[in-house]
C-alpha cells in the first residue's frame, strides 16, 4: 500500500528560493555554511509574519542574539534547485526563543525531499547593553499562537 504524498504547507515567496551559483562549491553542491543563513532567513521571516520581527523588537529596545545553531544534513541541495523553507516557533521563554526550520527540495516526485533541518536558539537582550531582557507579554503571546 502506498502512502499519499504529504504536500508542503503554503509558504510566502520569501521562503522559496532558487539555489544560485554563489551558494555552491565547485561541484555545484550547496556549501554547508549556506544552510545557517537559510535557517536564519526563514526563522526571521516567521517572526516577522507573527508580528514580532526585528523592527518590532528594536522599537521596544530589544534585540536577538544567537545562543546556539544546530543543523542536520540529510541530502545535498544543488545549483538551480528550488528550495522551500518551513519555519516554526518551537519554544518561547521569558527571554528566549527557539526557531526550527526544515529545508526541502521541490521536485517532480510525489513528495518534496527533506534536505536539512535545524534550529536557532535565540536570547532576547536589551538593544543598548546586551543584557538579557524579557519579551513583552504582547510579543510573547503573538509568538505562542499557532501559525
From TrEMBL:
Pfam (any one): 4HBT
Claim: Hydrolase is one of the keywords in the record: yes
Protein name: Acyl-CoA thioesterase
Entry keyword annotation includes Transmembrane: no
The organism's place on the tree of life at top rank: Bacteria
GO molecular function: fatty acyl-CoA hydrolase activity
InterPro entries according to UniProt: 4-hydroxybenzoyl-CoA_TE, HotDog_dom_sf, Thioestr_dom
Coiled coil: none
Protein family (similarity comment): Belongs to the 4-hydroxybenzoyl-CoA thioesterase family.
Annotated ranges, domain Thioesterase: 28-108
Transmembrane segments: none
PANTHER family documented for this protein: 4-HYDROXYBENZOYL-COA THIOESTERASE FAMILY MEMBER (PTHR31793), NOVEL THIOESTERASE SUPERFAMILY DOMAIN AND SAPOSIN A-TYPE DOMAIN CONTAINING PROTEIN (0610012H03RIK) (PTHR31793:SF27)
Keywords: Hydrolase
Species, as recorded: Corallococcus llansteffanensis
Amino acid at each position: 500500500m502506498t502512502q499519499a504524498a504529504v504536500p508542503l504547507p503554503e509558504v510566502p515567496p520569501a521562503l522559496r528560493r532558487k539555489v544560485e551559483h554563489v551558494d555552491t562549491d565547485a561541484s555545484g553542491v550547496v556549501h554547508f555554511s549556506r544552510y545557517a543563513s537559510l535557517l536564519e532567513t526563514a526563522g526571521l521571516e516567521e517572526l516577522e509574519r507573527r508580528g514580532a520581527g526585528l523592527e518590532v523588537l528594536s522599537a521596544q529596545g530589544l534585540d536577538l542574539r544567537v545562543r546556539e545553531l544546530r543543523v542536520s544534513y540529510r541530502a545535498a541541495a544543488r545549483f538551480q534547485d528550488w528550495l522551500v523553507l518551513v519555519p516554526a516557533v518551537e519554544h518561547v521563554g521569558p527571554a528566549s526563543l527557539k526557531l526550527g526550520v526544515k529545508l526541502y527540495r521541490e521536485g517532480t516526485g510525489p513528495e518534496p525531499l527533506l534536505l536539512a533541518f535545524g534550529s536557532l536558539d535565540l536570547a532576547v537582550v536589551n538593544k543598548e547593553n546586551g543584557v538579557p531582557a524579557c519579551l513583552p507579554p504582547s510579543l510573547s503571546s503573538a509568538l505562542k499562537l499557532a501559525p
